Structures are given as structure tokens and as C-alpha cells.
Amino acid sequence: MRITHVISGLTKGGAERVVVELANIAVEKGHEVTVLAAWPVDPAMMQDQLHPGVGIKFIGATRKKAYLNLIPWIFRNRKWIGSNDVLHCHLTYGAVFGTFVFVVLRKIFRYKKPAVVETNHAVGMPIPPFNRWVHSRMLLFRDGVVFMARDAYWNGFMDKHPGLRSALIVNGIRIPKQDSSAEQHQQFRQKMGVKENCRYLVGTVSMLRPERKPWLYISLLQ
Asked: What pTM was estimated for this model as a whole?
């Protein structure tokens, strides 16, 4: 199967981590995988963690050029896009890209492929109502949607559109469950420097953006 993930850039963030993990798992299973990033960033941020077998393409040299070049890029590369079995969209740039592919290639040019799916990474986030409404309209041009969580708005949206296939995958990726003994748990805690009386462990703190209210972490970590 030929799979392409579309995302703005491989920076440090939760969605970017999901893209890398999904791409790596798929290529290890024998699939042909490409990450299509809107613009390049420092490879040390996330790109270097991609499996060597994962292809990487960029739409523009800068953020501005990536947006200006989006539609022309789709037309120039429509045969390559149509050769993919799955186009997996992430974040706003990926959502816009996927919508144009669905409307232009699938509906107007009658391409049979690719199937356009999206992982909604913004569930539960304080997004302006208009932006969220626009996102919901774009989701109507999908063959399937993955939600990382549930909230009232998106529950209501899916109830109104029962024909749109959807699934709940917490954190955006399913990790095979691994059984481990109490001794292994203890060894891991010691290795990570987790104290015996520690009640809570924060595994990761994502990108510190104002809309995510990062100052709330201060009281948690004091």
C-alpha cells in the first residue's frame, strides 16, 4: 500500500510525533510511505526520527511559499498524488491540502484514489468558533476521520453526519499492549529517576502555545 502523510512541518509537537510513529510503523510493515511537509525545518526537531525507508517531500521552501504553492503543487503532482492509496491529513495545512485533493482530483477529475482521511488533533482545544466551523466543513470531504478524544462539539457533528466514517484512537496511534512485571516497572522507574513517593508522572509536555494555557503547568509542577 502507498501512504502519504501531509503536515505543515516536522517540528516538535504531538501531531508531528504521531506522523513519525505512524510512518515508521507502516514502512516496517512493508508499505511505501512518504511524509509530505509544507516547508522544511531543522531535521533535528523530528525529521531525523523517521525510518530511513520513509520518503520526504516539501511543498515550499518557506511557510509563505508553501501556502502560495499549495494549489499549483497539487496540479503539477496530481498523477503522483493519484498513485497513492491513502492520503492522511494532519493539522490545518494538511486539512486544506486534503480538501483540495478530494474536491479537485476525486470529484472533478474523477480520480479513484487516494482515500482521504484525517486525524483531528484539535479535539477539546479552545479553538475560535469560526475556525472550528471551517474545520468541520472540510471534514465533510473525507473518506474517514480519526478523533484523538471526544467532546460535545465533535460528538454532535458526527451525529449529524452518520455517513462519515469515524473512529476514536486515543492519542492518534494504537500501541501494541506489552505485558511487564512489577520488577520491570521498578527497574524502569529507577532508570528514569522516578521517586518512590511520586504519585503522578508527566510523560510529555507538548508545544507551549498561548491557546493551550501553558501557565497551568506551573502550579502542577511546583
From this structure: 0.82
